[in-house]
Predict the structure.
Amino acid sequence: MLIVGDYVPDFTVSATSCKNVQLKALKGHQIVIYFYPKNNTPACIIENQDFAANYSRFRDQNTIVLGVSRDSLTSHECFKKSHVLPFELISDQDGNLCNLFGVLKEKQLFNKPITTVARSTFLINHNGLLIKAWRDVSIKAHVHDVIDYVEHYHSKITASLTTALTTAPITAPTTAPTTAPTTALQAGH
Protein backbone atom coordinates (compact mmCIF):
# COMPACT_ATOMS: atom_id res chain seq x y z
CA MET A 1 0.00 0.00 0.00
CA LEU A 2 1.29 3.42 -0.95
CA ILE A 3 1.70 6.11 1.67
CA VAL A 4 2.26 9.84 1.33
CA GLY A 5 5.88 10.42 0.36
CA ASP A 6 6.10 7.32 -1.87
CA TYR A 7 6.75 7.54 -5.58
CA VAL A 8 3.88 5.85 -7.37
CA PRO A 9 5.21 3.03 -9.56
CA ASP A 10 4.37 3.27 -13.23
CA PHE A 11 1.16 1.56 -14.29
CA THR A 12 -0.87 1.21 -17.45
CA VAL A 13 -4.62 0.65 -17.10
CA SER A 14 -7.66 0.57 -19.39
CA ALA A 15 -9.93 3.58 -19.35
CA THR A 16 -12.96 4.99 -21.10
CA SER A 17 -12.78 6.50 -24.60
CA CYS A 18 -10.67 3.47 -25.67
CA LYS A 19 -7.65 4.87 -23.83
CA ASN A 20 -4.87 3.26 -21.88
CA VAL A 21 -3.70 5.48 -19.06
CA GLN A 22 0.02 5.22 -18.34
CA LEU A 23 1.29 7.11 -15.31
CA LYS A 24 4.70 8.00 -16.72
CA ALA A 25 3.03 9.54 -19.80
CA LEU A 26 1.31 12.01 -17.45
CA LYS A 27 4.57 13.33 -15.97
CA GLY A 28 4.49 17.10 -15.71
CA HIS A 29 0.86 17.11 -14.55
CA GLN A 30 -0.61 16.70 -11.11
CA ILE A 31 -3.04 13.79 -10.95
CA VAL A 32 -6.12 13.41 -8.80
CA ILE A 33 -7.09 9.76 -8.80
CA TYR A 34 -10.22 8.92 -6.88
CA PHE A 35 -11.62 5.50 -6.08
CA TYR A 36 -15.33 4.88 -5.63
CA PRO A 37 -17.33 1.71 -4.96
CA LYS A 38 -19.75 1.36 -7.89
CA ASN A 39 -21.27 3.15 -10.87
CA ASN A 40 -24.90 4.25 -10.67
CA THR A 41 -25.22 4.22 -6.90
CA PRO A 42 -26.49 7.44 -5.31
CA ALA A 43 -23.32 8.48 -3.44
CA CYS A 44 -21.06 7.58 -6.38
CA ILE A 45 -23.22 9.59 -8.77
CA ILE A 46 -22.95 12.63 -6.49
CA GLU A 47 -19.18 12.26 -6.11
CA ASN A 48 -18.59 11.88 -9.86
CA GLN A 49 -20.86 14.84 -10.62
CA ASP A 50 -18.97 16.96 -8.05
CA PHE A 51 -15.64 16.15 -9.71
CA ALA A 52 -17.20 16.96 -13.11
CA ALA A 53 -18.62 20.28 -11.87
CA ASN A 54 -15.14 21.31 -10.65
CA TYR A 55 -13.23 19.90 -13.61
CA SER A 56 -12.24 23.29 -15.06
CA ARG A 57 -10.78 24.34 -11.70
CA PHE A 58 -8.64 21.18 -11.68
CA ARG A 59 -7.53 21.79 -15.29
CA ASP A 60 -6.60 25.39 -14.38
CA GLN A 61 -4.15 23.88 -11.87
CA ASN A 62 -2.55 21.56 -14.47
CA THR A 63 -4.29 18.63 -12.81
CA ILE A 64 -5.69 15.53 -14.51
CA VAL A 65 -8.70 13.86 -12.87
CA LEU A 66 -9.20 10.09 -13.09
CA GLY A 67 -11.98 8.07 -11.48
CA VAL A 68 -11.50 4.38 -10.62
CA SER A 69 -13.88 1.59 -9.70
CA ARG A 70 -14.00 -2.15 -10.30
CA ASP A 71 -16.84 -1.79 -12.81
CA SER A 72 -16.33 -2.92 -16.41
CA LEU A 73 -15.33 -0.54 -19.20
CA THR A 74 -18.78 -1.01 -20.73
CA SER A 75 -20.39 0.09 -17.47
CA HIS A 76 -17.97 3.02 -17.23
CA GLU A 77 -18.72 4.17 -20.79
CA CYS A 78 -22.47 4.23 -20.07
CA PHE A 79 -21.95 5.94 -16.69
CA LYS A 80 -19.60 8.55 -18.20
CA LYS A 81 -22.02 9.29 -21.04
CA SER A 82 -25.15 9.46 -18.89
CA HIS A 83 -23.52 11.86 -16.41
CA VAL A 84 -21.49 13.82 -19.00
CA LEU A 85 -18.19 13.28 -17.19
CA PRO A 86 -15.35 15.25 -18.85
CA PHE A 87 -12.57 12.95 -17.61
CA GLU A 88 -11.70 9.28 -18.01
CA LEU A 89 -12.82 6.44 -15.77
CA ILE A 90 -10.47 3.52 -15.14
CA SER A 91 -11.74 -0.03 -14.94
CA ASP A 92 -9.87 -1.98 -12.26
CA GLN A 93 -11.74 -5.29 -12.38
CA ASP A 94 -8.69 -7.27 -11.29
CA GLY A 95 -8.14 -4.94 -8.31
CA ASN A 96 -4.44 -4.31 -9.02
CA LEU A 97 -4.70 -0.52 -8.83
CA CYS A 98 -7.00 -0.76 -5.80
CA ASN A 99 -4.41 -2.98 -4.08
CA LEU A 100 -1.56 -0.61 -4.97
CA PHE A 101 -3.39 2.27 -3.27
CA GLY A 102 -4.75 0.08 -0.45
CA VAL A 103 -8.42 0.93 -0.96
CA LEU A 104 -10.00 -2.53 -0.84
CA LYS A 105 -11.75 -3.37 2.41
CA GLU A 106 -13.74 -6.24 3.78
CA LYS A 107 -17.20 -5.65 5.18
CA GLN A 108 -20.28 -7.66 6.03
CA LEU A 109 -23.37 -7.63 3.85
CA PHE A 110 -26.25 -9.78 5.07
CA ASN A 111 -23.78 -11.64 7.32
CA LYS A 112 -21.52 -12.49 4.38
CA PRO A 113 -18.05 -11.00 3.92
CA ILE A 114 -17.60 -8.93 0.76
CA THR A 115 -14.72 -6.89 -0.60
CA THR A 116 -15.54 -3.35 -1.58
CA VAL A 117 -13.70 -0.18 -2.53
CA ALA A 118 -13.25 2.39 0.23
CA ARG A 119 -14.03 5.82 -1.17
CA SER A 120 -10.58 7.46 -1.33
CA THR A 121 -8.72 10.13 -3.29
CA PHE A 122 -5.02 10.64 -3.93
CA LEU A 123 -2.97 13.55 -5.25
CA ILE A 124 0.16 12.71 -7.23
CA ASN A 125 2.52 15.57 -8.04
CA HIS A 126 4.07 16.32 -11.43
CA ASN A 127 7.03 14.02 -10.64
CA GLY A 128 4.97 10.99 -9.58
CA LEU A 129 5.20 11.54 -5.81
CA LEU A 130 2.12 10.79 -3.71
CA ILE A 131 1.65 14.04 -1.79
CA LYS A 132 -1.83 13.70 -0.27
CA ALA A 133 -4.25 10.90 0.57
CA TRP A 134 -7.87 11.19 1.63
CA ARG A 135 -9.10 7.77 2.82
CA ASP A 136 -12.60 6.54 3.69
CA VAL A 137 -14.09 9.92 2.83
CA SER A 138 -17.60 11.23 3.11
CA ILE A 139 -18.83 12.80 -0.13
CA LYS A 140 -20.41 15.87 1.48
CA ALA A 141 -17.58 18.40 0.96
CA HIS A 142 -14.86 16.05 -0.21
CA VAL A 143 -14.37 17.35 -3.76
CA HIS A 144 -14.16 20.92 -2.47
CA ASP A 145 -11.53 19.84 0.08
CA VAL A 146 -9.53 18.24 -2.75
CA ILE A 147 -9.72 21.23 -5.12
CA ASP A 148 -8.87 23.65 -2.29
CA TYR A 149 -5.79 21.57 -1.48
CA VAL A 150 -4.79 21.30 -5.16
CA GLU A 151 -5.13 25.07 -5.64
CA HIS A 152 -3.13 25.79 -2.48
CA TYR A 153 -0.41 23.30 -3.42
CA HIS A 154 -0.22 24.61 -7.01
CA SER A 155 0.04 28.23 -5.81
CA LYS A 156 2.93 27.25 -3.48
CA ILE A 157 4.78 25.58 -6.37
CA THR A 158 4.16 28.54 -8.67
CA ALA A 159 5.34 30.98 -6.00
CA SER A 160 8.53 29.01 -5.31
CA LEU A 161 9.33 28.79 -9.04
CA THR A 162 8.74 32.50 -9.47
CA THR A 163 11.00 33.25 -6.50
CA ALA A 164 13.70 30.96 -7.83
CA LEU A 165 13.57 32.60 -11.25
CA THR A 166 13.64 36.16 -9.94
CA THR A 167 16.41 35.58 -7.40
CA ALA A 168 18.73 33.47 -9.53
CA PRO A 169 21.89 35.33 -10.51
CA ILE A 170 22.34 36.08 -14.16
CA THR A 171 25.77 35.20 -15.45
CA ALA A 172 27.25 35.26 -18.91
CA PRO A 173 28.74 32.03 -20.24
CA THR A 174 32.52 31.93 -20.07
CA THR A 175 32.82 30.24 -23.45
CA ALA A 176 30.50 29.93 -26.39
CA PRO A 177 29.05 26.48 -27.01
CA THR A 178 30.58 24.66 -29.94
CA THR A 179 27.39 22.84 -30.90
CA ALA A 180 23.76 23.80 -30.81
CA PRO A 181 21.81 22.36 -27.87
CA THR A 182 19.32 19.60 -28.64
CA THR A 183 15.78 19.51 -27.37
CA ALA A 184 13.71 16.40 -26.84
CA LEU A 185 10.15 16.76 -28.07
CA GLN A 186 7.25 14.94 -26.48
CA ALA A 187 3.87 14.28 -27.94
CA GLY A 188 1.02 16.32 -26.47
CA HIS A 189 -1.58 14.78 -24.19
In short: The chain has five helices and nine strands. The first helix runs from residue 42 to 53. The CA atoms of residues 30 and 63 lie 4 Å apart.
